TrEMBL record:
Amino-acid biosynthesis is among the record's keywords: no
GO molecular function: N-acetylglucosamine-6-phosphate deacetylase activity
Name the UniProt record assigns to this protein: N-acetylglucosamine-6-phosphate deacetylase
Keywords for this protein: Hydrolase
Amino acid sequence: MNAKNSTDAGGGIFDFQVNGFAGVDYQRHELTAAQLRASIDALRAHGVAAIFLTLITDTIDRLAAQFTRIERYRAADPVLAQTIIGYHLEGPWLNPESGYRGAHPAAPMGAPSLADFARLQAAASGNIRLVTLAPEWPGSAAFIAELTRQGVHTSIGHSNASANDIDAAIQSGTRFCTHLGNGVALIQPRHDNIIQRLLSRDELTACFIPDGMHLPPFVLKNFVRAKPAGKILFTTDCMAAAGAPPGRHTLGSLEVDVGADNIAREPGGGFAGSTLTPDHGVELTARYLNLAPDVAHELWSAKAAAAFGIKLPA
């Protein structure tokens, strides 16, 4: 499916987790307006109508500075403003244990703070629309409830939350799971583990990375079968190496190597974001789940937008 056909199939793609694209890392403080525009133009060429630009774990000072920087670029460029329709903040309120934190740095992680969120939301001009967090941190339920009151979506990810923690998060307003099946320790208890706990919760919409690497196709198929109708979404979770040649790229302060297999790996060998392009994500979703192309495309466009209350640009 090329970009033109992707758009013609029922509106452009909405990807709610994009860390970078076409060699451009959105986390880097050296990010220029020209680099951001080139990256967004490349995404649009791949059939994308809109994204939540995603920033991952960092200090509050650095996150606030980056939101301020990107907001300045958006204010000066209508194409950026139209395409970057909000932000996904993935951290720093995640589980710092090895495995669960994934490629995120552990040092800035901690319990959620409404004062810190207010500072970041002000820097983002009120445009943080989605926050991924680990609800096992003390105070998470009250934090989630306040964000829900403000109209900000929350999602469980990079977490080893107990069943009680998950109950409290759902009761407080959480509705999503971030890249379910990833951001977890490699060794898990056979039955009582975070994947099974989250997968079983029909209240939660599960978000998956369908690149065939983060989840093998047979696992993706099983996970999708476990969810009720209307409770699945897809994202690339792509980083700077997506839409770019293999080589060395960055994800914030982390250097990431992408080889001929097109897998982004951190120095320890684990995945560090994906190199999936959104239009290819639509193709793989249709292939792995035996869906008609227009059905797969709707999951990446109209249904994804509806889940977050987003009106896509015409």
